[in-house]
Amino acid sequence: LIQAWPYFGTIMEKTFKEVLEPKIRAKSVHLKTCTFTKIHFGEKCPRINGIKAYTKEIDRRQVTLDLQICYIGDCEIHMDISKFNLGVKGVQLYGTLRVILEPLLTDAPFVGAVTLFFMQKPHLEINWAGMSNLLDVPGINVMSDSLIQDFIAARLVLPNRITVPLKKNMNIAHLRFPVPQGVIRVHLLEAENLVQKDNFLGAIRGKSDPYALLRVGTAQYRSKTVSRDLNPIWNETFEFVVHEVPGQDLEVDLYDEDPDKDDFMGSLLIGLVDVMNDRTVDEWFPLSKTTSGHLHLKLEWLSLVNDQEKLHEDKKGLSTAILIVYLDSAFNLPKNHFEYSNGECGTKKMKNNKYLKKMEREPSSFVLLTVGNKTQKSKTCNFSKDPTWGQAFTFFVHSAHSQSLHIEIKDKERDSALGTSVVCLSHLLKDPNMTLDQRFQLDHSSSDSFIKMKLVLRALKVEEPDPQRVKAGVNASKPGPVHATEKAGNQQKFSSPPQVSKVPPMSKDSAALESLPKKDSGEELDAKDSSGAPVPCEIVSSLDEAEGKQNPEHGPPSALPSGAVAMPTLPVLQEMRVAPSVTSLGSLPSSCFELSSSNLDIHNGTEMPLGEIQLTVRYASIRQSLVVLVNGCRNLVPSSNRGVDPYVRIYLLPDRRWTSRKKTSVKKKTLNPQYDEKFEFFESLENVKKRTLDIAVKNNRPFISQERKELGKVRIDLSQEDLIKGFAQW
């Protein structure tokens, strides 16, 4: 990039002068004098901080790369418009650019086309020059930045893509507008322990008025505001179209609504690939970038299927289908709506000479598309009676049998309709593929005016969770507050537990999870007050199972009475043993990480080795990440006579969030699994030095199984290690 940057600058200077300048001049009478007086792209070129290549989750006929782009440029561009001088002196841009090379071919150039887009809106800052008095007004400066950001988003952020064909006669329509991967339905339920933000005269703290902003790509929704409540209940549902998985995330930001400026109360980022794999996730998530607060979300993944039986109307008013409109082009649009309206009315107005000139111009048209109460607008094609838009739009459909798509083509100059069309979605149901690809005759237009579109209808299907799959959400330790769960029928009541044992706090999130009752603390836990005792979530399952084994007459754990989640006997909860650090391992008789038998069913209450795990750990300075290679395990202790299917899960404590948890693949029926899988935690070295690796080997059992889940765990204190040199060890 550094070598090529001056040449790129020269090409761009030429483009600005020869292509952009004439285009700007043609836009409006006031811009006719526009001239670029200085174009210099500077010495500093963009930097690519990291590249990620996807291999597992994608089609074999494509290469998918994510590029972390950082541009802190010293470019200078100045232009004169009549008497004003306007310019840019420096730009900052950060974002993740996805590059897809597809389809891969067996002959040169080996790649059919390149597709580029940003996953989320890139962060952009522009340093304006010239017209200083106007653009330095804070509001206008921010406004101009956000306008340009929106302009970039409208062209470069999903679902918009730039596709460049590399091979001649390559049909790129399906690459520019692929069918979305699915729909995520987000139930925003409630939050608790939010931070107080309202203060009066800087002293008295009142209760906040929280609301949530939810985002996937460019789509954003806002919840209602719950006034004066730090434990708000929303019970609202939002639906988002998901175009790229892995890659797209659900972003949730909480704000306190204020008359002047809304205060930030915390945020949440959830990778949608895990939700797609788990199908349904119902979790309490800890909020980040704040001191306290948890958010309860239920997330459902909906697949797009070509199945008319799934189109029955949803009684709760939720969507049952999605309509994808590929808006291609129009033909023979009238120059103005007088061409087809009352001729008499037209001649009267045409006497005005100025108006006549305007009438003879070709129309500058855009399209309004409406389904139900949602309207979307296309870009504007200037001065053409055969405009080509080439855009895709998606709409949620509640009833495919009764709803329609309304099309209206308008002229930007005169805001008059050049033609309309109505397509009943029931027409799509007559086609076995629920697709229409044709020209549609325009009403209220010339007799030979058409619009060319492709319409695709797909039903939304709630996928059933796979009982064999290790759930990332429900079975993993809860990222939210640790609740002892009282089960009464299907209703789950939560009671926040008091902290029993004193544990050095690592962070707010993990302090609750670390609060295991110590064996030597002398606190006997009675069954009576067990509902309030802190039961760490990973243990709840093994306790239920232990109880189920001891009292067969109770039936399965889910049918236990509300007091039955009590801890059966104290030895089951041994003191959590932290693994010795690697430097002190040399003094041990065998240099290995013995998997400690904490929180398992323990024979005679004594600690016994449960096998070994081989790990390679180092810090990659260039990538600014901690690399953990899970090589394999040996001599694991089986938890049942039907064999075990082990996998390894990793946390970098104190972060126990579901979203930052790493997990290997599952190896079937073996006590000596070989993984050789690599994981990365992107943190600075000084941060990593303060953290602890928490590694657990688990059994991938069926969801309703009685077997023990955890086969053993180990902890490594990273503050004691030379991470740059790294270590590899059993």
Please, could you describe this protein's structure?
This is Extended synaptotagmin-3. It comes from Sterrhoptilus dennistouni. It is found in: Cell membrane; Endoplasmic reticulum membrane. Residues 516-529 have a biased composition (Basic and acidic residues). It holds the Pfam family C2. The chain has 730 residues and is mainly beta. The chain has four domains: 2-168; 182-305, C2 domain (Immunoglobulin-like); 314-339 and 361-462, Immunoglobulin-like; 612-729, C2 domain (Immunoglobulin-like), CATH 2.60.40.150. It is built from eleven helices and 35 strands. The strands form eight sheets. Strands 8, 13, 16, 17, 18, 21, 24 and 25 form an eight-stranded antiparallel sheet that branches. Strands 1, 2, 3, 4, 5, 6 and 7 form a seven-stranded antiparallel sheet that branches. Strand 3 (63-81) and strand 4 form a beta hairpin. The longest helix is centred in the first third of the chain and has 23 residues, at 5-27. The chain is globular and about 90 Å long. Mean pLDDT is 75; it is low at 339-353, 474-592 and 597-606.
